[in-house]
């Protein structure tokens, strides 16, 4: 891609990580390469940034609430567990929404966050989203068809199911 756009791979990496943006001439080259209009390209970029900001904002909001609850005297672990459960369910709901839009990478990130929450029920959330997550891993090319993931999710075994 860098070669086609007459640029360096590190520049493209910066664009992908939000540390820079292509100039108008490069945007035109990208739109021609993918055979989409500049308008469609701009709308897609804006929508992705909006969705990423929404997920990040939700995560930050829940982290602040949990921190405040932990500082209060007399707050039971049950209250924190309930809030954590709500957070996990929100991630799962967001993941399902992204999947319906065929944004499988975003869906994977949401399901992984739901499964990684640090609470006694974390395993429950991981298993709740396991089948969907495995399907999305396949769709984004992270695993082969028929492969399975262990319960930690971040390590995918490349064994074929019998």
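^ structure tokens above, recovered residues below v
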């Amino acid at each position: 891609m860098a070669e086609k756009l007459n640029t360096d791979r590190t520049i493209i990496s910066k664009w992908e990580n939000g540390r820079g943006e292509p100039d108008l001439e490069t945007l035109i080259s990208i739109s021609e390469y993918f055979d989409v209009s500049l308008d469609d390209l701009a709308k897609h970029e804006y929508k992705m940034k909006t969705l990423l900001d929404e997920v990040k904002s939700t995560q930050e909001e829940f982290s602040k609430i949990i921190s405040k609850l932990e500082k209060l005297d007399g707050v039971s672990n049950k209250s924190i567990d309930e809030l954590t459960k709500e957070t996990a369910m929100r991630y799962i709901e967001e993941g399902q929404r992204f999947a319906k839009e065929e944004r499988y990478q975003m869906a994977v990130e949401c399901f992984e966050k739901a499964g990684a929450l640090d609470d006694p029920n974390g395993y429950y959330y991981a298993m709740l989203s396991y089948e969907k997550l495995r399907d999305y891993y396949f769709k984004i090319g992270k695993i082969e068809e028929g492969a399975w993931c262990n319960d930690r999710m971040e390590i995918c075994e490349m064994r074929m199911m019998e």
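The two ends are 39 Å apart (CA to CA).
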